[in-house]
Amino acid sequence: MTDGEGAAEKLDILQQLFEVLDALNRVSHGLRSSCHSPDSDSSAIRALAELRAASNSMFSANRHMVSLSQHFSELIELVQELHKSKPTGHGLKSFLIRRMKSHEISRLSATIESELQNWIDRETVLTLTETVAEMRFSRKPSSNLSPSDEDQLFVKMTALQNRLSREFDMNLQDLLLKSGIFSELEWVLCNPRFSKRIREQAAITIKELVLYNKNVFVGLILVGGSVKALVSMSFLCSLQVLSSLIKAIKSPLVDEIESCGGILKIIGFLSSDDLEMRIMAMNCAMEIGYYGRKEAVEALINGGLIKKLVELQRSELGGDSIEMKNLESHPFASCVGRFAVQLEVGEGLRQREKRAFKQQILKKVREACVSDAEFATIVAEVLWGSSPW
User: Fold this and answer.
1) d(C-alpha 295, C-alpha 254), whole Å
2) CA nearest to 58, candidates 127, 1, 124, 119
3) Which CATH class is domain 3-117?
4) Which of 117, 144, 298, 361 is 20 to 30 A (C-alpha) from 46?
């Protein structure tokens, strides 16, 4: 069996496991309902039997999953016993027996669901880690990946993203740390030989790792090359990921963006031909203004941000109305005043620094404006916007 065939087989097994877990959730819900409606026990038994038959060969072929097969058998026996103990009257003994068996069914169903989910988590993380590691240490350059190889890598990263977007689980957390998945994904993100599609997917997966547990993964993203790669990729997706990370990590991430020259690149994206890129670059600049410390804000202002914002506000998508209802059709409306507000209410600057930067903003506005009327309008918005709420 080739590496590609082995990877495809693992993906098939994962898909089957997902289907089994989904079916078990539906059956478990039916079982809980059957505790109050004894006539529905038989349908639950049939569903369980079909589920066990469908998954039996997969479970028995893997020694790690033998216990799951045993649990399924026990669950079917319990449901059958519950069905046989269907009360003919309202006796206390019959009621208590059914209650005890129902409780045991719920407990065993939960055990099976937990074991299945743990197995899926393990396969999701390890298959992705192994795939990237094989690419990393293979003599075959990533630029020579076949479309099917890329598709499998894309699917595996997507599967991990979907899992990370759900509830926190300590077993999964331990697995993520032991697998070294972060460094493998960072290698993909920082490797320009991968396609845009794959690097974007790696960026999104890294973001989901950080959001899954900031206490663990923030340090890794700050000491690695992820931030520099994100600001240099010039993709809309990378700016979106950067925006999410700024909100999650705040000042430490802004410091890292500033130290790697990322602020000037973000300002440069304000001149992009792509409207969405310009909007996202402005959003990043606004967030840097909110969370950034003195050095970062200085880099924004000295890097020509105010001039670019004045130009954007002057454009047909700008204007001098800061009302939120106008921002969808005019995303750059009052953007200079909005930036001033971000600095005023933000977390990164001291009060005296905020006052000093407001004066610098007004000076830069004067230099950028083409008329006294434009200058008066923007100054009024800056002064009004930075007043107490």
Assistant:
1) 10
2) 119
3) mainly alpha
4) 117
